[in-house]
Write a structure and sequence with these properties.
- It holds the Pfam family Pho86.
- It is a single chain.
- The chain is of the alpha+beta class and about 290 residues long.
- The chain has two domains: about 20-40 and about 130-285, Gcn5-related N-acetyltransferase (GNAT) (Aminopeptidase); about 60-130.
- Helix content is about 45%, strand content about 20%.
- It contains eleven helices and seven strands.
- A seven-stranded mixed β-sheet has the order 1-2-3-4-5-7-6.
- Helix 9 links the parallel strand 4 and strand 5.
- Helix 1 (about 30-55) packs across helix 4.
- The longest helix has 26 residues, at about 100-125.
- The protein is elongated.
């Protein structure tokens, strides 16, 4: 089995390695780190979707309305003409020294916290489909990478391809044509896989960027590679979620155009929040 490059996404990059940026196809020694990258990228999407739902206008309005309702229920009776008969300052002083003020304030704070927490948990639960998708990556290697990376990792490519068994050579050549990895300090930080969909079209099936490098717009470099692999009259497409606005902006800047939008099979996410799966396409031009 090929010795695997660093596959940890929690540990920082090794500073004793040369600070060089390299590109290459997915080789056997990159099988594990690339798989981990793909899984983590899907977990990142789950986190992003949870934040999108929680920060949406609908949820914000719900939280404000709930707080206002609780506040009115517990503190409405305090705001009477009698309490404020001697002015605002005296009225607030009377409210603060009410025998039930501390109890009602505690109720308001605790109830608001519970509603806030319940809303966050609900948002987290409704985005779990991305968690399951991430955990299923090892079971669907060919869907993402075009071949079984677990089996591919058992190969060892230490010399020129002419000394490599025919089946391994075929897999390496497949990866040379369909995959692109960017390494920094000898650690994979981003990759893309583009597979044949039909005679004249490709589909980007695997894609991931290490979280700390997402904002560096390294996605644009991955898309540039995908476009350069096209021949005249060929096209490539990629499916993203409508909440991935950062990636969508890069897709548009790279010449991709929206082809279709499909609502999620979820009443809450698809109907209430309008989250869609969007397919963008790039068509070769001279």
């Amino acid at each position: 089995m090929a010795a695997q490059k660093s596959a940890s996404l929690d540990a920082p990059l090794e500073m004793n390695k040369p600070s060089t940026i390299e590109s290459m196809p997915i080789l056997p020694d990159l099988a594990e780190p690339v798989t981990n990258l793909q899984m983590d990228y899907l977990f990142y999407k789950k986190s992003l979707l949870t934040k999108t739902v929680f920060k949406s206008k609908a949820v914000a309005s719900l939280l404000v309305a709930a707080f206002a309702g609780l506040f009115y229920r517990k503190f409405g009776p305090y705001f009477t003409p009698y309490n404020f008969r001697n002015g605002t300052t005296e009225g607030l002083h009377n409210i603060y020294h009410s025998p039930f003020f501390i109890q009602d304030a505690f109720y308001l704070v605790s109830s608001t916290f519970m509603i806030f927490s319940a809303t966050l948990v609900a948002a987290w639960l409704h985005t779990n489909f991305l968690k399951y998708e991430a955990e299923e990556v090892p079971k669907h290697m060919e869907q993402y990478f075009g071949l079984d990376l677990e089996d591919y990792a058992k190969s060892s490519v230490k010399s020129k391809l002419r000394r490599v068994p025919a089946d391994v050579k075929q897999k390496v050549k497949f990866m040379e044509k369909h995959s692109f990895v960017i390494q920094y300090r000898e650690t994979p930080i981003a990759f893309i896989v583009q597979q044949k969909k039909s005679d004249s079209s490709f589909n980007i099936t695997g894609l991931a960027v290490r979280r700390v490098y997402i904002k560096s717009k390294i996605l644009a470099d991955l898309l540039d590679w995908a476009k350069k692999e096209l021949s005249p009259k060929e096209s490539t497409s990629i499916t993203v979620y409508s909440f991935e606005t950062f990636d969508i902006d890069i897709l548009k800047e790279s010449g991709f155009k929206l082809l279709k939008k499909e609502p999620l099979d979820s009443f809450v996410l698809g109907s209430l929040f309008g989250i869609t799966r969007d397919t963008y396409i790039y068509e070769w031009s001279s």
